[in-house]
Amino acid sequence: MRIDIISVLPELMESPFKTSILKRAMDKGLAEVHFHHLRDWSTNKHRQIDDEPYGGGAGMVMMVEPLDKCISELKSQRNYDEVIYLTPDGITLNQKIANTLSIKNNLIFLCGHYKGIDQRVRDLHITKEISIGDYVLTGGELAACVLADSVIRLIPGVLNDEQSALTDSFQDDLLSPPIYTRPENYKGLEVPKILLSGNFAKIEEWRHEEAVRITREKRPDLL
Ligand code: ADE
Fold first, then answer.
1. Percentage of the chain modeled with pLDDT above 70
2. Which of the pair, 164 or 109, is modelled with greater confidence?
3. Is the Cβ atom of 116 under 6 angstroms away from ligand 1?
C-alpha cells in the first residue's frame, strides 16, 4: 500500500512511521508513506497556501490552486482508490472503515488547517472525509497518523501471530476480555482459574462471555 500525505506540517508526522510496527511495515515493503509539502505547490513567491474567506469571517481558508495542482500531479502518476480529507466534519473513523481501507493500493490523505479547504477542492478531488472523533485538533496531521496506523497494521504480514488483529477490540463489535500474565497472584489479586486450566474450549467460552459483559458495561451501543 502507498499513502501520499499532503500537509503544511509534514515534520509533525515523521516519527510514527520511523518507529516500531509501522517502521517494520515500511522495511518489509508492505507500506510506503510519502509526504508532500503543500507550499511546494504554491503559485506565489511567498509560498502562500491560504487566504481570507470570501464573505468575511474569522480564520483562513486553504486555497484551491495549490491543492488542485498537488493532487492532480499525484493522480497523473498512478490511480488512487481514495482521496481522503481529514476533517472534524467527516464520518467518524471506526474499525470497519480501517478494514475497508486496508485492502486498497493507493491512498491520498489531505491534512486540513486553519478554517479548512476551499469547497472546490472537495468538489474536484475528495472521495472520503474522515474525522477521528468529535473534537477539534490544530490540524489534520495527527488524525492522518491515527488513520494510517489503524490501516497499515491490518495489511496482511504487518502484524505477527502474537499481535494478530483478529482478536482486537471492535473486530467483532466486542471489546476485548481481560488479559493477564505472570505472576499468578499479585498482592492477593489472582488470575482467574479458568485461564490456568489448559481447557482451551472453556477458555474461549469464558473470554467471549467476558467480552460481552465488558462491552455491555462500557459500550452498550456496540451490542
Ligand atoms: N482536523 C482537526 N480535527 C480533526 C479531527 N477530529 N479529525 C480529523 N481531522 C481533524
1. 99
2. 109
3. no
Q: Is 215 a pocket residue for ligand 1 (Cβ < 6 Å)?
A: no
Distance CA 86, CA 142 (A): 9
Q: Which CATH class is domain 2-152?
A: alpha beta
Letter string b/e over residues 146-173, b meaning 16 or more CB atoms within 10 A of that residue's CB:
bbbbbbbbbbeebbeeeeebeebbbeee
* ipTM, two decimals: 0.98
> Cβ(86)–Cβ(147) under 8 Å?
yes
Q: Which residues contact 215 (CB under 8 A, 6 or more apart)?
A: 173, 174, 175, 222, 223
Q: Whose CA is nearest to atom 5 of ligand 1?
A: 88
Give the pLDDT mean for 63-77: 98
Q: Model confidence at 162, in pLDDT bands (50, 70, 90)?
A: low
Q: Is the beta carbon of 7 within 6 A of some atom in ligand 1? A: no
Question: Which residues make up the CATH 3.40.1280.10 domain(s) of the chain?
Answer: 2-152
Alpha-carbon distance of 147 to 138, in angstroms, equals 16
**Any idea which architecture 169-222 has in CATH?**
Orthogonal Bundle (1.10)
Q: Mean of the pLDDT values across residues 50-65? A: 96
Structure confidence by residue, pLDDT tens digits, 90-99: 999 999 999 9
DSSP H or E stretch at residue 62: strand 61-62
